[in-house]
Amino acid sequence: MGAFLETLIGGLMTGMLYSLVALGFVLIFKASGVFNFAQGAMVLFAALAMARFATWIPKFTGLESKLLANLLAFIVALLVMILVAWLVERLVLGKLVNQEGITLLMATLGISYFMDGFGQTVFGSDIYKLDIGMPKEPMFLLDKMFQGGILVNQEDLVATVIAAALVALLSAFFQYTGTGRALRAVADDHQAAQSIGIPLNRIWVIVWSVAGFVALVAGIIWGSKLGVQFSLSLVALKALPVVILGGLTSVPGAIIGGLIIGVGEKLSEVYIGPRFGGGIEIWFAYVLALIFLLVRPQGLFGEKIIDRV
Amino acid sequence: MFYRENGQFKTHYSADQQIFPIRQDRVVILALLAFAFVVVPFVASEYVFRALLIPFLILSLAALGLNILVGYCGQISLGTGGFMAVGAYAAYNFLVRIDGMPLIVAILLGGVCATVFGVLFGVPSLRIKGLYLAVATLAAQFFADWAFLRIKWLTNNSSSGSVGVGELSAFGWTIDSPAERYLFCLGFVAVFALLAKNLVRSHIGREWMAIRDMDVAAAVIGIRPVYAKLTAFAVSSFIVGVAGALWGFVYLGAWEPAAFNIDRSFQLLFMVIIGGLGSIMGSFFGAAFIVIIPILLDNVPMMIGVPLDTALASHMTFMIFGALIVFFLIAEPHGLARLWSVGKEKLRLWPFPH
C-alpha cells in the first residue's frame, strides 16, 4: 500500500508538471486555433535564457544576492519571451491568417526548429544548472501509518504548488480582466470578435506572451529538476497526449489530463511495465489518450465537435 | 507555343482516359524516365548517388505514401516513421528467417506488415478527426520505437534493435554498386508512382478526396467513411512500409530503431506540405527540397571559405531549415506543386498572354 501511494503521489506530481507544459498548448490553441508544436522549444528557450542570464547578470554587474540575480534573470527571460511572441505574430502567424490548421502546425514546427537552433547558438548547448533555491531533500509523509512512510520529493511538492497557483492565476486572468474576456471572445469566434473591435493581432501577441510565461515557469521547474539541456524540448512530446486527453480547448482539461497521464504512466510502468520488458512509459500515455478518444473524440472537457454539411 | 493541347483530338475513350492526356506531358515524362534510367547511372558520381539520389528516391516514395493519406484523404499522420520502421524490420525478418526468400518479395511483404499496422492505427480515425488524430497517430510512432528496441523477437534477438543486411540480390542480379542501388530504388519508385497516379484518379481516389473535402457530406452521398479511410491508411502505409524497407536495406544497410524516429515523421510531413498536398508530383518536389537543403547548408560555408565548427554548423542548419520552412509556407502555402502548375498555365499562353 505504501509503495502504491508513493507511485500515485509521484505520478500526480509529474502529471502536474506535464499540465504546466500542456497549459501553453491550450492557451494558444484556444485563442488562435494554432496547434503550437513550438511549445517544447519555447520551454527550452526560456529555460536557457533564464539559466544563462542568471549566471551572466552577477558576472557583469557584480551582484552579490543570488535571489536578486535570479529575479532579474527571470524578468529578462520574460522580456525575451514577449519579444519572441511579438516576432512570431509579426513574422509568421500574421502572414498565415486563414490558412488550414495543418499549415499552421507545420509553421510552428518550423519555428521550433528555428528556436532550437537559435537558442543553442546564442546561449550555448551544454547542460546548465538552474538553481533557484528549490528544496532538494526528500520528505517522508505518514510514517506512522506505513513502514518507512511515503517518500515525497520536496522539489516536486513546490513545483506542484507553483503549477496550481499558476493555473489559478490564469483562470482569474481569463475570467475577470478585460483582456481575458477579449481572449475568450477571440477563442469563441475570430470574426465576431474582430467585428466588435477586438484587435486580433494584439490578442495573439498577448496570448503568445502568456504562453511564453507559462513556458518559462515550466522551463524553470523542469530545468532545476533535470538541468537545462536539449532534452527539455522533448518534454513537450509528453504533454501532447495530455492536451488531447483533456481537450484542446480546456484549461481545466489540461490539468486533469496531466494528472491522469502522470498517474497512468507511473502506475503502468511499475505494475504492467515489467511484463513487457519495461520502458512502456514512452507510448503508454499516447495509447491511453488514443483509447480514451475513441469514447470521447473531443477529449474530456473539449467542446463537442459538431459536424455540419 | 510548345505546351498546348489544341489539335490533340480524342477519338476514343481510351485516349480520353489515359493517365497523361496531353501529349507533351507524356513526352516529358517518358524523356524524364529514360534520362533517369539510362543517362543518370553513367554520369552521376558515387557521392551524388549516395548522398543525393538514393535518399531522394526513397524519401519521395515515402512522401508519396504519406501524401495519399494526408493530401488525398485528409487524415493527418505523425506516425510515418513508425510505419517505415515496421516495413523495414518486417522485411528484415522475412529475409533472415526464411531461407531462399527473394529480396523483392521480402520488401513487399514488409509493406504488407506495415499495411496491417497502419490499418490497426487507422481505426481510431473513424472517430477522431483533425489535430486530435494527428496527435493520436504519434501513438503508432512511439509504440514502434519501443517495440523494436525492447521486443527481442521482432529484431531477431539482436541487441538494442540494430540489424543489418548483407549482400542484396534480385533475380540473380547482385545489387552492389551505388548505381545499381539507385536503379533498384528507381524501379520501385517508378512503378509505385505510376500506380499511385492511377489510383488517385480512380473510383477509390475520388472517394478519398470526397472524404477529405467534407466527410459528412461524403457519407451522405453514399461513400462509406470506414472503407475509404481504412483503404487510404492501407495503401499509404503499404507504400511507406516499402519505402522503409528500401531505406533500411538499400540506403542504410544496417540500422537501428532511431533511424525511424519521430524526426523522420516530421521530415516526411514537411516534404508533403512543402511539395504540395494532394499532388503526386509534389511529393517528389518536397523530397528533393528537404534532401538538398541540409546538404547545401553543410557545404556552403565551406565553399565560401567560412569554416564553422560542427556544433555551431548543426545549430545553424537547424535555424536556417526552420526559417526556410516558415518562409515557404508563407510564400506558397499550397506547396511547390502549385508553383509547377502555375508555371504550366503560363507556359500554355506563352509567348502571347492575354
What does this structure look like?
The complex is a heterodimer of chains A (309) and B (354). Chain A is mainly alpha-helical and 309 residues long. Chain A has one domain (2-22, 38-233). Helices cover 71% and strands 3% of the residues of chain A. Chain A is built from eleven helices and two strands. Chain A has helices at residues 2-32, 39-61, 66-92, 101-123, 154-176, 178-188, 190-195, 200-226, 235-246, 251-271, 281-295, and strands at 138-141, 150-153. Chain A has a two-stranded antiparallel ribbon. In chain A, a hairpin with an 8-residue loop joins strand 1 and strand 2. The longest helix of chain A has 31 residues, at 2-32. Chain A is globular. Chain B has 354 residues and is mainly α. Helix content of chain B is 71%, strand content 3%. The relative contact order of chain B is 0.15. In chain B, helix 8 (203-213) packs across helix 10. Chain B has a domain at 22-258. Chain B has 14 helices and four strands. The radius of gyration of chain B is 21 Å and the shape is globular. At the A-B interface, helix 4, helix 9 and helix 11 of A face helix 6, helix 9, helix 11 and helix 13 of B.
Beta-strand percentage of chain A?
under 5%
Structural class of chain B: mainly alpha
The number of strands of chain B is 4
Element order of chain A: H for helix, E for strand: HHHHEEHHHHHHH
**How are strands sequenced across the largest beta sheet of chain A?**
1-2
Number of domains of chain A: 1
> What share of the residues of chain B lie within helices?
over 70%
Distance linking N and C termini of chain B = 14 Å
What is the CA-based Rg of chain B, rounded?
21 Å
Put simply, the count of helices of chain A is 11
Report mean pLDDT of chain B, rounded to a whole number.
86
Written as H for each helix and E for each strand, in order along the chain, the element string of chain B is HHHHHHEEEHHHHEHHHH
